[in-house]
Design goal:
The protein is mostly helical. The protein has helices at 18-31, 43-55, 66-73. Helices cover 45% and strands 0% of the residues.
Length: 78
Amino acid sequence: MLGISDLRYYPDRKSSSSYIKNLQERLNQKNNASLIVNGVFNEQTLYELMVYQKRIGLTVDGVVGPQTREALYEYHPW
């Protein structure tokens, strides 16, 4: 499993990788999303990322930055 330091990038809509698959899995777990885990940073992935950021009170920018990474990979009761 990938950790926080593995997502030190800013995904764009053309990104496709194991990092994106891991992000999609985490969003499915943390956000009760129903993303298809295919490694493609598409519109659905962006939407769920932004919904997650809004729900936990982060800046909604669609970027997996340090705060979003920490929230995705650390335990939070939300």
